[in-house]
TrEMBL record:
Signal peptide: 1-20
Pfam families referenced in this protein's UniProt entry, alphabetically: PBP_like_2 (PF12849)
Gene3D superfamilies according to UniProt: Periplasmic binding protein-like II
Keyword Signal: yes
Residue ranges of domain PBP in the record: 59-295
Protein name: ABC-type phosphate transport system periplasmic component-like protein
InterPro entries according to UniProt: PBP_domain, Phosphate_ABC_transporter
Length: 325
């Protein structure tokens, strides 16, 4: 079953159980994405906090094999490879489906997945009342078109670009051309650390910014326009940089590497978290143990920043896992 089939099955199950009683206003068009809503026909969905708060855990049966769904960033970065390695070393079958943070919350609450993957913080999110563990840190990269002569900007200048205060590349050491900020403001109802850092939690994105509808659209627009700039996950940026379609811009002279983020030298990072509602000792503990193992940390460190098991337990809320860890 692919991701689209999985989510279609999930949404059908939800509508049969409790969505029907929520009214038509739960679903709105992509034009209202800035308010944080669900577009049922989209590959990337956002749900209002009010809707998520009304979704109760289902009493159905979880899948027989360990099933994960949610943000495709950790899936692409390391979970797919981990699933292969766990199968090879322990013969445990692990299914990993991609999607978004809302997919994770819906699937776990509806008991269609054991674990949900989020690329946003848990406190204050629609998953705030669920069990969770941080598993890694994502690194966000500032990227421009390869022909752009600018190789480095300061965090302060990036904040001014985000807010629309800097609108010409000449202010950043480039040519006398307008700055084309490309923004993919995914799931704006979630707290997002980089958005918070760049906009101070109160300012809107630049009024002259270009809105992208998906991560692919975001990166392709930056790759297409010589004056474009944007920020996205290193997980998604890396192939574009490797192919010469995008160029990394260092931030105050620091490159967006996992090692620099680990050392605290690079500020643009975000969390990779896992959520769950029901603990299955035999399925879930071995997988979490692998995530926090030396081998698991090596896999994570290729594209992200691993987190120590003790720190993860002390930061998150997973009493069943902590009990015997």
């Amino acid at each position: 079953m692919n991701r689209r089939s999985f989510m279609n099955h999930l949404l059908v199950s939800l509508s049969a159980g409790f969505c029907a009683g929520l009214g038509a206003t739960t679903y709105v068009t992509k034009a209202s994405r800035s308010n944080g809503v669900l577009n049922p026909g989209s590959d990337e969905t956002c749900l209002t906090p009010e809707f998520m708060a009304r979704v109760a855990s289902s009493s159905g049966s979880l899948p027989d094999s360990l099933t994960l769904t949610g943000s495709r960033l950790p899936k692409n970065a390391f979970l797919d490879l981990m699933a292969i390695e766990v199968k090879r070393t322990t013969n445990q079958q692990v299914y990993v489906y991609g999607g978004g943070c809302d997919d994770a919350v819906l699937a776990v609450r509806a008991r269609k997945a054991h674990i949900g993957n989020l690329c946003c913080p848990i406190p204050g999110s629609p998953a705030h009342d669920m069990y969770w563990l941080p598993i890694a840190q994502d690194v966000k990269a500032v990227v421009v078109h390869p022909d752009n002569p600018v190789d480095n900007i300061s965090l302060s200048d990036l904040q001014d670009v985000a807010k629309g205060r800097i609108r010409n590349w000449i202010e950043l050491g480039g040519h006398d051309r307008p700055v084309a900020l490309v923004v993919h403001d995914h799931c704006p109802t979630y707290f997002e650390p980089v958005r918070e850092l760049l906009l101070a939690g109160i300012a809107p994105w630049s009024s002259v910014g270009i809105n992208a509808t998906t991560d692919e659209d975001h990166l392709q627009q930056i790759a297409r326009f010589p004056t474009a700039i944007g920020v996205n996950s290193w997980v998604l940026v890396e192939p574009y940089v490797r192919q010469g379609r995008l160029k990394i811009v260092t931030l105050d002279g620091i490159s967006p590497s996992p090692s620099n983020a680990t050392a605290g030298a690079y500020p643009l990072t975000g969390p990779f978290n896992m959520i769950f509602s029901h603990w299955n000792e035999s399925l879930m503990r071995p997988f979490f143990d692998y995530i926090f193992s030396e081998e698991g940390s090596k896999i994570i460190s290729r594209m992200a920043v691993p987190i120590d098991r003790t720190k993860a337990i002390n930061t998150g809320n997973a009493p069943d896992y902590a009990r015997l860890a």
